[in-house]
Amino acid sequence: MQLKPNAYRLNETVKGVETMTRFALAVLALASGVYTYLGVRGILDGSASFVFFAAIIYSVAVSVAIYAFWSFMLRFVPLVTNGVQRIGLFITMAVGCAMIIAMSSWLNAAALAGSAATEQHMAVTLQGYAEDLDQAHSNALAAQSLLPDVQRAAERFSGLAADERESGALTGTTGSGSVVQLLTQMGTQMNQLAATITGSRDQVATQFEQGSARLATMRELVSTPGAIEPRADSFQTEAVQLSAIIASLQQTGVAASVKRASADLSAGFIAPVANGQSADLANRQDQVMETVRVSVAAQSAALTAAADEILATPAVEQRRFVPLSSAEAVIRYWQDFIPSWAGAISIDLLPVVLVLVLMIVNDAMRRESESLEEAENITAAEMLRAMNLYRRMEAAGIVPEPVRSEPPAVEPEAMPEPVEEPAAAQAVDDTTVTPIDAAQRKRTDGPRPA
Questions:
Q1: What's the CA gap between 115 and 92, in Å, rounded?
Q2: Do 79 and 359 contact (CB within 8 A), yes or no?
Q3: Torsion angle, CA of 158/162/163/164, rounded to 10 degrees?
Q4: Is there a single domain that holds both residue 88 and residue 107?
Q5: Are residues 222 and 167 in the same domain?
Q6: Hey, which of 196-210, 212-226, 369-383, 418-432 has the most confident mean pLDDT?
Q7: What contacts 64, CB < 8 A, 6 or more positions away?
């Protein structure tokens, strides 16, 4: 059997956890202040003493604000029963929560995940630099695809010159004449162009190795444990060196040089004068040299088109590493640190749960109190006031006297003499004895008639 009403038990329980509630609220406010101090210290600039005192003052202000705000909410929200007023308090609480997140939670997140967010920023930048180096290397090596065409053209001109010299395959007359000189000249130019393309390969490979070494150093800086500030500084230095290597790789590409050389083959074509002994031989030499000129023009157009296609490839944009503070890094890469954000916000907004619990418990106590009988719900003060009112009514004669039965008749001589009460017994406190009106009967009077 329940000895006490449920509303009374709920009320006693709420009083019992009140000290624990205050202690928990103070601990949460203190924890938020500590992490706010760590977050503020990472974004302030200046002397060490200035940063220390500024961070301390800000964190103390945040702790006091959080404790005061949630103390007000814990006190007032459970007591308000009107719907409109309760909605107003909820809106006020939502605005306060937004302000707490703005002044504290993001700094808490910076303290919890600031180093990891900065490492994330370095890792993302490193990935971008690696892609830029690969693209610049590919663009620099794109001209190597022209090398087979150039070598094939050089071999063809050299072979025609040898055939003309040995068997007269073009003019029908053996020997080293104007046609052989022209073909040899074209073969030599093609070989020089091939040597230019081949020579750039070694330079590109050397620069790519240097860039790969810089990338390896940057990867070590990202993954090495320790303080993030010196690692970020070293990372920035390596990033500058790597940017210079990428820019040099883009300048090493010989596609533009191949385009200019191939255009010179056609524009700068100079045919020698036919040196045949007879008019017929000279005529045949002129015809062959015209054919060579047309072939050189076609080869020049093909090489120019291939070089234009390589040059149309988008160049690598210059990338610059921008150092971020821990707070800025946490905000930029917030999607990667959702658990840290959840923990930082929970420290500040956990009292919302306490407010809702107290509100529900107080509503339950009010519902339980409405169902109680008046006798079970009366307080001690109300009981004292009711007793005092009853005494006044009785003194004024408003309350009727209870009906008494007549005592049996007694002979006058047999009645005992009245005994006087001691004075001490008659001196009774006025607060505990109801005064008797003068019109009432005296103690020595006989019994009232029925």
A1: 35
A2: no
A3: 100
A4: yes
A5: yes
A6: 212-226
A7: 29
What's phi and psi for 265, nearest 5 deg?
Answer: -60, -40
CA angle, 21 then 25 then 29, to 5°: 175
Q: How far is CA 346 from CA 51, 75, 167, 219, 367, in A?
A: 27, 21, 94, 34, 32
- Look up residue 308 and give its two tokens: 């234009």
Task: Identify the CA nearest to 166 among candidates 152, 179, 153, 151.
Answer: 179
pLDDT tens, position by position, 107-135: 888 888 888 888 889 989 898 888 888 88
pLDDT tens per residue across span 221-232? 888 887 888 888
pLDDT band at 268 (very low <50, low <70, confident <90, very high): low
Statement to judge: residues 95 and 128 lie in one domain: no
Q: What is the residue range of 105's domain?
A: 6-116+336-370
Low-confidence winner among 33-47, 168-182, 386-400 (lowest mean pLDDT): 168-182
Q: Which helix (H) or strand (E) holds 54?
A: helix 48-76
Q: Report the number of distinct structural domains present in the chain.
A: 2
Same domain? 237 vs 208: yes
Amino acid, single-letter form, for residue 132: D
Same domain as 296, residue 197: yes
Phi first, then psi, for residue 430 (nearest 5°) are: -65, -20
Considering the domain architecture, whether residues 123 and 189 belong to the same structural domain is answered as: yes
Map residue 78 onto helix, strand or coil.
Answer: helix
Cα 309 to Cα 304: distance, rounded to the nearest angstrom: 9
